[in-house]
Amino acid sequence: MSSIVAATDASLWITGLMAASGGVASLVSIISLFTTRRELELVKSGIGTEIAAISKRVTAMEEDVRDLKRELPEMERRMQAASETRAVDLHERINQVLAAVSELRGRIHERGNH
Fold first, then answer.
1. Which residue among 1, 51, 88, 106 is least enclosed by CB atoms within 10 Å?
2. pLDDT (tens digit per residue) in 5-27
3. What share of the chain is helix, strand, coil (3-state, %, to 5)?
């Protein structure tokens, strides 16, 4: 478990250093000042692995965004159709209430005239 945590911590540090130093080449130059050639090769391979993993995640997110963009027009059409249906139903109910009120008004008017 501790080796997994250490690897995760190391990858976070590498990612942070890469961002702060201005890229892979700068990070490798900085790290080479403090490491042996073997350690430097391990760091380079770790950075390559991290970059590949990040690239895969970015590619997957780009595909998700493309899928959403394709689906948006249909979603919008369905939402507009549902809104139209609700509006028609609401107007229909209002018309029913108005008809009932009109009928009651007519009955009240008839009673008042008799």
1. 1
2. 455 666 666 666 666 656 666 66
3. 95, 0, 5
